[in-house]
Structures are given as structure tokens and as C-alpha cells.
Amino acid sequence: MPFWSNRGELWPTGTCRSTPSGRSIVAERSAERRLAALLFQTSAADPPTFSVVPLLLLAVAVLASYLPAQRASRADPMAALRCE
Question: Are 49 and 39 in contact (CB under 8 A)?
């Protein structure tokens, strides 16, 4: 529990948990109308697009965190501490 919150203050009701996802759906629908003009032969609510793009972003995020971690795990900890 964060030090700045009181007990029960984080999620007082079950409706608070669904609010961020509800907001994102509303934001997506409003952005859909504005971005529809930029798409070429693809609808803004295309299911394959909505499934592939998040998976692609997830893959990029995993690689962006895995590759530096892999490189750091190969380094000698004592040599890294001596350099500082």
C-alpha cells in the first residue's frame, strides 16, 4: 500500500476498477472517427488491426526490455562496480 493513501482509499468500490477501461473505450471511439480519414482501404474498427497492433507493441516492449537485460547479465558485476 502506498504511504500516501489510507486503508480502503485505493479501491473503495468495484466500479472504480472498470473506469479506466471504460475511459479507454470512449477515447478509442472518439479517435476512431478522427483517424478514419487517414486510413486507406481499412476500416477504423478492423478486428485484425485491433488484435495485431497491440501484439506488435507488446513484442517491441518485450524486446526493448529483454535485450538490455540480457546484455547487462553478461557483464561482470565486480568490473562494473570498480568502474564507478
Answer: no
